[in-house]
């Protein structure tokens, strides 16, 4: 099996909860050795979120599903970085590391002598990635930032939710912690870019400032650009699409489907499937711009037509004429989907608590260096002795540190 893309890269992961751990997991999936630094006794905050939990068969230990989703392909080392002996361990580890990931509040690690300038003095080649809610600069820099808060402040909630005038109107949070996930991906892109620059451009590392606030704003570019051009704040569109019209969720006799008419030809073929070909000749609906201006009218007409048959009936006929559409799947239906099965989106890992722990695979597929191994998220501190031995700590010294609560 060929080496993975990041084989030989060592990452010190001092992040917790989701955005930072996602970046560490991505780097680990790609072959980096990722050493996760956790607090003795409690570990990553997300280990205690819940339920549901993955429980030790004897009931003595448990890990939260939230932790399990973002920490595979890592090694766990417990270190109390608030103590000088713990800080020294981190400094020893970074001497041979390529990357340090952290998501502490701005200024916190400086108190411990583990800020970028201090680490750079030890290892000038280090790529130091700081993941925060609001970034390293600006009036909000010291604020804590959680996904839902950034969805609100960054404008995402303002354009998400039912149309004004409909029941349930008003701003709405996107279900998953999508800003955390996107920030983790941005941090990964930043780390890999800085590693390339370091190795191709002279050997110097640098600090990366990745934050949720910048990420959510940047992710809204296809909504923000019209605003920047026109100065008009866009309304919420419910499930309406962002370009082609009509596009949205339509109720059928036994459920709902999502339809997108991305161009005039697709609209014409949809009208034929619905048994109303003359709709495509209506002056209100001839071109996409016309249909956008008369959006509520065409959406209401389509809503009445789709109510005449079940979901499968419409999807079969829309697929036959090349009109993009799909069912509204719950998670049971997602993993039962034959395409999802063929893509292997559900993978198994051997966990101490469960022989075949199910995980969602990395979404990247490489032709030459495929990701095939998914090591289960580590138990708290399970690799402490192993990793400390690589920096010269013998068993007696590790035992003494454990007695003092340092590891």
UniProtKB/TrEMBL annotation:
Gene3D superfamilies recorded: Crotonobetainyl-coa:carnitine coa-transferase, domain 1, formyl-coa transferase, domain 3
List the GO molecular function terms.
CoA-transferase activity
Pfam families referenced in this protein's UniProt entry, alphabetically? CoA_transf_3
Q: Sorted alphabetically, which InterPro entries does this protein's record hold? A: CoA-transferase_III_domain, CoA-Trfase_fam_III, CoA-Trfase_III_dom3_sf, CoA-Trfase_III_dom_1_sf
Q: Specify whether Transferase is a keyword of the entry.
A: yes
Alphabetical keyword list: Transferase
Its domain of life reads: Bacteria
Report the PANTHER family cross-referenced here: SUCCINATE--HYDROXYMETHYLGLUTARATE COA-TRANSFERASE
Q: What name appears for this protein in its UniProt entry?
A: CoA-transferase
Q: Which organism is it from?
A: Tardiphaga robiniae
């Amino acid at each position: 099996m060929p080496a993975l893309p990041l084989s030989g890269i060592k990452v010190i992961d001092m992040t917790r909860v989701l955005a930072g751990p996602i970046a560490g997991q991505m780097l680990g999936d790609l072959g980096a050795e990722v050493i996760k630094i956790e607090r003795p006794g409690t570990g990553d905050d997300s280990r205690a979120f819940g339920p549901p939990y993955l429980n030790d068969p004897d009931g003595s230990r448990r890990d939260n599903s939230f932790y399990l989703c973002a920490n595979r392909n890592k090694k766990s080392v417990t270190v109390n970085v608030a103590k000088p002996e713990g800080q020294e361990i981190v400094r020893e580890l970074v001497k041979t590391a390529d990357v340090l990931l952290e998501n502490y509040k701005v200024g916190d690690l400086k108190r411990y002598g583990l800020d970028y300038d201090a680490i750079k003095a030890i290892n000038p080649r280090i790529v130091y990635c700081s993941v925060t809610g609001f970034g390293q600069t600006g009036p909000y820099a010291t604020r804590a930032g959680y996904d839902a808060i950034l969805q609100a402040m960054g404008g995402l909630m303002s354009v998400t939710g039912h149309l004004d005038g409909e029941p349930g109107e008003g701003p709405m949070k996107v279900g998953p912690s999508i800003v955390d996930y996107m920030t983790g991906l941005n941090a990964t892109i930043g780390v890999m870019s800085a590693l390339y620059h370091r190795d191709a451009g002279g050997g110097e590392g640098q600090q990366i400032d990745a934050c949720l606030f910048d990420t959510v704003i940047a992710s809204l570019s296809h909504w923000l650009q019209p605003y920047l051009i026109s100065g008009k704040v866009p309304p919420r569109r419910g499930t309406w699409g962002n370009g082609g019209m009509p596009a949205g969720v339509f109720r059928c006799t036994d459920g709902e489907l999502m339809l997108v008419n991305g161009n005039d030809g697709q609209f014409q073929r949809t009208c034929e499937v619905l048994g109303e070909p003359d709709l495509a000749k209506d002056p209100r609906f001839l071109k996409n711009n016309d249909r956008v201006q008369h959006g509520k009218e065409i959406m209401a007409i389509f809503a009445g037509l789709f109510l005449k048959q079940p979901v499968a009936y419409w999807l079969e006929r829309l697929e036959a004429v090349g009109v993009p559409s799909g069912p509204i799947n719950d998670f049971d239906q997602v993993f039962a989907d034959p395409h999802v099965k063929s893509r292997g989106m559900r993978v198994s890992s051997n966990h101490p608590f469960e022989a075949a722990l199910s995980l969602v695979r990395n979404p990247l597929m490489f032709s030459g260096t495929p990701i095939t191994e998914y090591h289960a998220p580590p138990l708290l501190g399970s690799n402490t002795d192993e990793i400390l031995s690589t920096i010269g700590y013998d068993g007696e010294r590790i035992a003494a540190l454990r007695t003092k609560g340092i590891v």
